[in-house]
Fold this protein.
Amino acid sequence: MTRRLQLSETGGGVVVVTLDRPQAMNAFDTAMAEEMLALFGTTLRRRDDIRAVVLTGAGERAFSVGADLKERAGMSNDAWRKQHALYRDTFESLWNFPWPVIAAVRGYALGGGCELALGADFVHAAENAVFGLPEITLGIMPGAGGTQLLPRALGLRRAKELILTGEKFSAREAHDWGLVNALHPPGEELEAAIAVARRIAANAPLAVQGAKRAMDGGIDAPLKVGLALEVSVHQRLSASDDRAEGVRAFNEKRTPEWKFR
Ligand code: CO8
């Protein structure tokens, strides 16, 4: 079976993961979900040279159009439930990934494809990107984080309108509403995302992981709980070699050499 994901090492601790089914607009079938779960749940997690990941789709037309509706045609309820459990595990492995994940979106990001972008830490998009959660038009509802992540990205009232109508929205709207951090001419979004990933990867790795953990863990907690989480993560960094190296390098006017400890 052909591989569904391609890995490209760009150096500097940044890996690009490409959904590689352009003939199917990078639709997610079971095999793609299994590969992604293995990648984010195990393979990339175990590598000690990773500092940031860029997630993108092959071809001009789509980041991903979500679940493969051809594979799903005629699926029994039981097979559907099992596949959805796999999709959830796959997305959990992305949500819990310890390093920043940046989505570079060109073309359609629909259904699970939109949820994939929502599950990344942030998104850079081509001006031609089209987003949407059309599940409701298919007799289902978003089930890979969409009902929770879209309201957090856009606000509840706008998310309700989009999810309950299933209507698509443009890259410009996604940018204006806060889902997309930056827009680029089509074809330039990937390099832009890699450039941001490289800037992140040049920072102290424990500090990057810690800041991400504090933001993700605190955003839905009461402020006092979030602030307490920040202190506890910060205290662990205070005892790190890289904390000392950062200040030393500043005063010696040189680039720090991080040890990840
Ligand atoms: N699955 C399988 N094939 C697809 C999908 C899809 N999701 N979307 C498009 N295709 C196929 C079409 O069937 C067509 O194939 P063929 O050439 O063999 O007929 C080909 O791609 C081109 O599609 P169109 O002819 O429709 O091209 P258009 O330019 O007219 O339209 C669209 C492109 C707008 C993308 C349109 O195809 C469309 O609306 N597709 C459906 C998108 C959709 O509804 N996605 C949501 C799926 S449900 C879901 O994702 C639930 C998430 C589950 C958990 C997370 C899993 C990742």
Summary: The chain has a mean pLDDT of 97. The beta strands are 5-9, 14-19, 52-57, 62-64, 101-105, 108-110, 122-126, 130-132, 169-170, 182-184.
